[in-house]
Amino acid sequence: MSKERVLIIGAQLQKNSDAHFASTIEEMKSLSETAGGEVIDIITQKRERIHSATYVGEGKVEEISEFIEANEIDLVVCNDELSAGQLRNLNDQLGIRIIDRSQLILDIFAQRADTKEGKLQVELAQLQYMLPRLHGMGTILSRLGGGIGTRGPGETKLESDQRHIRRRIDEIKRRLKVVVKQRKQYRERRKSNNIIQIAIVGYTNAGKSTIFNRLTDETSLEEDLLFATLDPLTRKIALPSGFECLVTDTVGFLQNLPTSLIAAFKSTLEEVAEADLIIHVVDVTHEDKDQQEETVINILKDLDAKNIPILTVYNKRDKLKDDFIPTQHPYMLISAYDQTDLDELLFRIEKELKDDWDYFSINLGPEEGQVMHQIERETILEESKYDETRNEYYLAGYIRRDHPIQGVIKEKRT
Fold it and tell me: What is the pTM of this model?
């Protein structure tokens, strides 16, 4: 099947630097290719403000129209989110399908969702995106093919019935509530079992899944594509001391993620807000890495996760050509393909947990086996020995500040 021929259009506002704008355009190119399109060209315009009716000026619309005709373009992808009016006007004047940044991202998510929950979340985000734009998309939706921007609910001719969309939104929300409740129960069970949770987050394509796979011997999707991971995976890992914890790989973040998408994936992203430690993976070679870092940090704030300890892992050290100055602390510079670096990462994860926990030492008699077993399983143990003369065990290490066994440890100290 031949790829759709795509033209990207973008308006650079005066407040945006050339480097930042170039980075967003490059990202749109990657997104379009990830969705299965072939980018033929990019047409941009510098403006003081976005044109309220057509996004770019009338003269630029004419230039775009001529280019479309001369180059057999199938689809125009806009670098920003369009209003219903802008969508309708551009569609009327250009005569071909127009989709914006949000619709393109939603389309990729629709392709990538594997689980029932993931599919429901994407459909909800698509419907919430479409609802206020139906008047602008009417003629577009009525002649949908099977191309980019049409996956998901767009294929079901929903344009004529807003009530149907609202009913479907309500139904999906009800079904997702059940999933959210289940996830909450799983998290509460993990908390009650004192299981430590580590979340790997980062900008899309920063190497999160590669690191996750290497640490867990997992074989989740690992591609040089945006949003290679959509549905979160959680696996158990052992730290150097033998202490076991859970690590979760999450969906990649992106600049200007559609609000409806963040809202729809709230239950998935709550895994991050419940974590004991966040590993923030950054592609150290990316020219716009500072902006990418900032995007992830802002999304973490939106998720109420800003107070959780964060270890920034600058990845792709093997491809680094220039001197590196970190902008976040604490940090590590690694290559996900270097086993020594990964071993060191496990030591750093353990160190970050210890820095946030309390040091303890305790003497236990042989009859206190249950307490000893719990300490061995749920703390980072640094010392464990048996004193024959006193017939007791000595244990020392680090324990979470709010761990229920803290009471026993304090009792033993007094």
Answer: 0.81
